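Subject — a protein and its fold
Fields — amino acid sequence, structure tokens
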Amino acid sequence: MSISKFGYAIKNYGLKKCLKKFKKVTHCIFDLDGTILDNQHKLDEAYAKVFRKHGKTYSLDWRLKVMGRTGKSTWQTVAKELKLKIGWKSLYQQYRESAKDTLTLAPLRPGVEKLINHLYKHKIPMAIATSSKKTSFTAKTKHIKHLISKFHHVLSGGDDYRVTESKPSGQIFSVCASFFEANPHPRFCLVFEDSPVGVLAAKNACMQVVGVPCKPTPWTALQQATEVVDSLEDFFPERYGLPPYSK
């Protein structure tokens, strides 16, 4: 196994130092878009369509800025920074119209199903914390109900009254963790995220976080994660005290 397989932190700071950062966890929380589902490129297409409609260019910088946020936070930021003469609600509606026919039946990212089945088999409590609204979550996941059923609960931060702050606030992960029966301390929770704001949100919730960037997001954009892996096929549960895969 090459050192690169151990993730960004080891690659840049050395094996011995990085391994000290991994602490035992008992609960796992997954982001949805771009982490469980391989749909970030479809989201990008919907964003780009709205930007073009207003004579603007959707760039990688914008991708890193808006991915992982709630619709309200995203389009308020876009309207303000691009000085558009249109309200965020109208922009959000244009985005929803652009995205509605492209976000269903998205494939799973590599290694996701294997990891979820493994954790479920070993009775590791799991949850999903997504910035999507409930209706959007249902549409996106209707083809993987068999997998979603293995999660203890789902928190849709886009319209849940208990989530009042968008990522990079850690609120969504803190609220999500509180729904587990054991109400675990943040240090016992491990988050899986693909976005820079998601990684920061997990850190702000005082949780460890595995960054799983989706192209063209660079590894460096997630360097504040506990570790970064190319895909969950490169994730080793035993680093965090979780049961290892069978050989």
Notes: The longest helix spans residues 40-53. The radius of gyration is 18 Å.
